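Can't paste images in this forum, so I'm doing it all in text. The chain is below; anyone willing to post the predicted structure tokens underneath?
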Amino acid sequence: MIHPSPQPGAASLVTSNSLANHDLANHGLASNALTNNSLGRVAAPARVLQMLIEQGVTGRLHATPLQSNLPGWFVDIAQGKIQFAGGQDPQGDRLTYLLQRSYRQLLPLLQQQPKAGRSPYAFLHQCWQQGQLSLQDLRQLLRLASEEALIHLLAMLQGRVQFERGVTPDPILISLNFPQAMDPLEEQIAQWQFLGERQISPHRRLSLVRGSRFEEQFRIPLLAQSRARPLPSPQDLLANQPSLYRLAARLNGDVLAIAQLMDQAANFGYLRWLDRDSTQAGGQGDRPGPRSASRCHGGNPGTIACLDSSPAVQRQVRSCLEGAGYRVIGLSYPQQALSILIKERPQLILMDGALASAEEQGLGRLLRGSPLLKAIPLLLLTPHDSLINPIRAKRRCPDLDR
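Text version of the structure:
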């Protein structure tokens, strides 16, 4: 099962009480309008799902990303309860990942099935009927699959939504209360939202560009996120341009953590994101990462980035620098910092000395190892009477500015 820790500030996505039915109906999002519109309306799937649950209707809500090349998701509801959630899985990568993480005993059976059109519900139901799964295990796996799908459906800030009436739920399916069931998933929803802004989904595929540099910079982070031993070579790991689901299954790791690492590697130019239907690196379907070195020229004038987890420090830095005419980018989460810094290209980076020196982050070293960021001055923010963090940071990243 997934056990994320709650993240403050994400609850409003799925738990806000301000989304009254009449407000949504006024925007054309009543369930009848959603049913009658064959193309689907553009809306926030989380709001529509909450409206349908509050109305106590029964059926299936479809939500498709506005980017037509990304697979969609669905959730079955019955009388105000979530019964099951799933999504399109053209190559069966999602089901392989779910079983690799939760029930590896079924992988040999899965390999006997055709790759295309593997449905988690159909496959698990078949295993239960054949005596390969107990009813308790079946319901637990269905819940896991539903939670994982709901994360991605709710992470869509906007999507094309359509409600299909008449879908009768199976009595063996799970029954989840909304929004209580979503509370432990909020952190993952927020992280996938951030990735989704750059059209990164677990179905996005990758191509290796600079294998030696990728292995040099990301072998240790991958070892920390992977339970696969020995760790495959970059060529084996990224053979056949795998999706993030397939890659996470090969590493036996969490797909969100793997996605964040691959996003950083793509920003460094070591990997390249591909469209879902791409089959050849360098083909027409290729889509490079957010920026490449050839398109980045200089930084944004007057921009300073502040990477610190303390809101008080952020306020103090912003107050001082904005008053002097600078634009300040506040960054509180290290896992998001590299992508934003590469996009914004500030003139100066201020960073908490503890983050630069933390063994588990290695953030100072990653900044100095990035071809796009290494020339930007990097200053540490530390208490005036503290020498430990600067010393540790200098040991792990000797060329940090003083």
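DSSP finds 18 helices and eleven strands in the chain. Confidence is low (pLDDT under 50) at residues 1-28, 277-301, 384-398.
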